[in-house]
Amino acid sequence: MLYKSQNILSDILFALSLITTDVKYGTKLKFNDKAEACEGIFARILSIIFDKGFTNCNLIKQDYPAIDLHSDSIAFQVSAQDNSTKIKDSINLFKKNIDLGKYDRKYSKIKFLIISHKEKFGPKTFENFDTYNLFSPNEDVYFSANLGKQIKALNPAKQSELRDFLWFELNLESDVYDNRFNEIQSVPSYLENTSNDIKARTTQVDFDQNLLYYSEKEEKSILDFANTINFENKLSYLITGHPTTGKTTVALKICDYLQNQIGIVPFYLQLKTNTSYSTLLKDLKAINGLPTVLIIDDIHLDFELANRLIKENSKFKNIVFLFVSRHISTDFRKTFELDDVFETLRSNCLSLERNNSKDFQRDKILGVVAKRSDFLLKQNYNPRQGGILHLEHISKNNLLKLKLLLNNWCKADDVLSNIDEEIIHKDLFNKFLKKYPKEEILEIIKYSCLYSFNIPFEKVDPIIELTTEREGLFYTQDVELKSLFMQPSFCDLLIDSYLFLNQRVFKTEFNKDKNLFKFKNIKQYIEEIKIEQYPEIIIEIFLNVGSAENYDILRLLFNDSKSKLALFNYFKSSENANSTQLKKIIQIVKIFAKSNLNEIINGLIINNKNINQILLRENTGLFVLSYIHYSISPINRLLKSKLYETFNDETLRKLIDSSANHKVTLAIQNINDSKIRKRITDLISQQKWEEIIKETSFDLIGNSLTELRKLSPKNVKPIFASLDPILLADSVKWVDFYKLTKTLSELKTFEKYETNSKAKVILNRIEKWKIVESLKYAKIQQISQGFAQLAKIDNLFLQDLLENYSAELLFEKLNEIKFLDEYSLMLININKASKTTSLKILKLIEQNHSFKERFNSKGIKGREIPAILNCLRKLGANSYCSKLIEDSNKDIIEGRVLSSLPEVSVRIIKSIKPINEHLADKILSTFLELDLITKLDNKNYKLSQVSDFLVNFSHCDEKLCSDFFEKINNLIFIKKSLKSNVSFAEICTFLSNVKNCNIAKTRDIYSNIYAHNVFHKKAREIQPRVFVNSLHQLNSVDNRFTVRFINSYVNQKNINKELIFKTIKEVNKDFGIKLN
């Protein structure tokens, strides 16, 4: 059975995972005593696993050299450092101590127990490393959280002994789910089977009976994603997909896998629009300390809460958040949320919506049917299939509908091919609706319309008890009778079954429009409540329908007078109405009902006497107000100015004082009216500005100072001067390499105010091992960018950092880069920072022949070939360049030359020529057989591309280039130069670049262009310094026109002639003319 904590093996894995995460977390905070304390625990664990008596070496001699545990001739080192450098250094030290006779016995083997969730090192990690026959990489490295293979091999008695020892040492309870929670629940309780045989979600039976089907490709992507989840990088993860495509089930499958692999404890939270962060925080504190994966489902209902958890996840020791969301379109996300969860977690996301092809859906149906058939056979049924392709049309990618359809299989000993949509709808209707009176059926359908959008409705009359309520069709959640009606997706199917069996009414009254039917029921629900008693739930109707991106129903709601009145009354009278809800409503209106925006803003804010209390109810009031101002079209100036006129200075000052400090600068940034912006900034005291900056987290302080410089420049210098770099450095408990280097780089820009570098002080104050550790979890692009930023702050620090950072790990990260041109750029940046490190990486590249497979791939881009060859030659790897070309598929290289843009083609040939001149000349000859002039004449081919092509062509063969250049009609260059989107400076750069290809031809082109007024008009439109720099380029081509050009430019109105002549002298003291 899955998720059973009583399972002995599961308990052992859980305990080992708890030790691992606790030690790793503690080690990052320099609590090394925890790692040392665990040596005794692991001595007992290893003694049980290997059936040998391992003892702590420190019992023999304090600070016993190089090893921690031993038994007879076998030595063990226990370490929380999971890099290969540590192992290599330890083996060398171990061998040295053996040779010096420092041990009291003869050791034949050293093994390593790494306290880590890591599974293994790369296959080539220990290549060319002398192990002195004391160590075997494949046999002598164990990772604490992955001892399952060894433990599974133990007999039951040994497993029980190990389980009892661990749980006693860790003081664990017999059931990790004994805690009672307010918002979250344990996965076992979520998966618990119900008495109802129609299950609207995945249950334990689906796991136990192996009813879940995933294709080989799908299974691999899920497990690959699961293996990226660990407790050391403090990242959150995201699963997205269309409704009813099995997102939650995939999350549960991942938790099942991780529980079996590393012993995590899984929990589940169904998010609602009214989920309380403070209540959730209590639950998180209750589970804090257990190695937990918390599935947070339906985050599209509250992105702000999800964003808060992402930003604050480092507070929750050993908890990994696994978010699940319905797929949200990019346009909707951009408008709806300033902090885009999808973008934030893009690198840690499993996108199920990509599995949307017809072939995939067909394979899914066949797989699910096969699983169900096996299950029915075990239940002594005789399942008959027949043709099943009709299921694709019936289910319409809805796995719940497919599941309900298969539940009908064999009920009447029927063939699956005979079960159609009518049978499903009749079965649902008969089971859940038919036996009730008509008026109760209509009530059920009305509530279904509400809960199909996850709206936890209140019954209009809570006193009247429906028959269906007594029979458990929907469930009473609390004394206020807020009812949860099954699952939203199930409610949708129940509505479908009702409409299918009431086709005539559906067609005549609703024109077969399901959204119109739903709206009619939602509207009826609103109208049945007295106007003065509109329920709090009215806000959830608008927000949840908006989150579902249902444009049709939202448009109808915003155009319905009673629905709008209900919304206005909620914000005018409810004590629960707050600024977050207000912002969400405005966001939804902007997306789905833009024509209603002015009316909504007037009703909710300008004509609302309760608006001050709403905005002051949370610490985001000022930010929400500025967001609404930003949302109003610039055309509507009257409404934009009227919005802030609603509030006096005293109210605005209260909003400022009550605002979260990090929201103040963001709020002002959103105000695109200089007068209003000045009004707000004038209300902020110097003391408040200091509070804003000092209370800002380290990751955001650089950005906040940058924004402050734009908003209130006079305040920046004293505030920056007041910052204590030591306090800032000490506030960094957890290092994120990208955020650290970005913040330090931002602080560096303010150092013109200081004699000492605050950025440098902070950098050197942070413990270097933390920065080295953070590099493990940074992407290679972030590492490269960070190195460039660190070089400007403290180059010596960077060099020392690279010396301490494993070149092997950096090499592994480089290999994650998809394109070789990006790879080469990263490698050059690393070389700038540390030539020693780049040489080590180059050695690894040569040893592994890393680029051979990529170079011979049909998918290689033309731009990649010259980028990597030039990079390798620049770094001195000429011999490897030769080997790469020698082992390459020449047809692929030639194909890239012939299929790429001309300027890319000649760059490829140019990069090959120093390595293999014969091959370069051969490819060039083939290339010149193409109709290149027609390609260059293409209207989309830019002047800068022509320049790039000719310059690189000349490097391949000067004579051929000059002859080719001569053949091109000057009209091609003139047309491209005189285009409206080509600047004067671009024309000058082109002429300057190509003059070496053929000076006579270039002068001729210049003379032709000079004859056009458009060229002179372009010249008059640019700034003096740009003009002079460009003129310098033209003068190098042909000085006959220089004097006339200067006279033409300086004789314009409002031109400072003295400034022009002064600039000319600065740029070039001698233009070959007399200026005075």
TrEMBL record:
<dbReference type="Pfam" id="PF21941">
    <property type="entry name" value="SMEK_N"/>
</dbReference>
<dbReference type="InterPro" id="IPR027417">
    <property type="entry name" value="P-loop_NTPase"/>
</dbReference>
<protein>
    <recommendedName>
        <fullName>SMEK domain-containing protein</fullName>
    </recommendedName>
</protein>
<feature type="domain" description="SMEK">
    <location>
        <begin position="13"/>
        <end position="152"/>
    </location>
</feature>
<dbReference type="InterPro" id="IPR047740">
    <property type="entry name" value="SMEK_dom"/>
</dbReference>
